[in-house]
Amino acid sequence: MTATLQNIKKSFYTFRNGVISDTLRKAGMPYKVIFGLQIPQIADIARSLEPSGELADALWADSEVRESRILACYLFPHDTTGPDKVRELLESVRTQEERDMLYFRLIRFLPFANKFPRNDR
């Protein structure tokens, strides 16, 4: 998996955007590293990867890198992610963007999604 994480980080570096990164940092994003990728670019990277709980967990654990957290939301497998995992993820969310991506890319596809209503708006 280390080689895969390295390849992912290289992709982030390839698409980095300093203007967006600076803007997000000035807006108060809590990450140490912000590459400045836009969501469509992260989606392109996700399409090149197979869903994997192990890889998604590793990316989610990389909590100081914005793009790692967002990409993880695309990679949690819909068929094996259970309610306890969803609860754990929601409890560790750092930004509204992460919360939105979890709901949009993962939770809404799960058969128990109604147990996690969006009540933050």
Short account of what is shown:
The protein is an all-alpha fold and 121 residues long. 58% of the residues lie in helices and 0% in strands. The radius of gyration is 14 Å and the shape is globular.
Explain what you see.
The protein has 121 residues and is mainly alpha-helical. It has seven helices and no strands. It has helices at 2-15, 18-26, 39-47, 53-61, 66-75, 83-91, 96-105. The N and C termini lie far apart (37 Å).
User: Which stretches are poorly predicted, pLDDT < 50 over at least 5 residues?
Assistant: none
The rounded Rg comes to 14 Å
How many runs of DSSP E, i.e. beta strands?
0
- Number of helical elements: 7
Mean pLDDT: 94
What is the makeup of the main sheet? none
Supply the helix-strand structural class: mainly alpha
Strand content: under 5%
Order of SSEs: HHHHHHH
Helix proportion of residues, in percent? 55-70%
Shape label: globular
Q: What is the distance, rounded to the nearest whole angstrom, between the alpha carbons of the first and last residues?
A: 37 Å
Reconstruct the topology from this structure:
Elements lengths: L1 H14 L2 H9 L12 H9 L5 H9 L4 H10 L7 H9 L4 H10 L16
Helix pairs in contact: 3-5, 4-5, 5-7
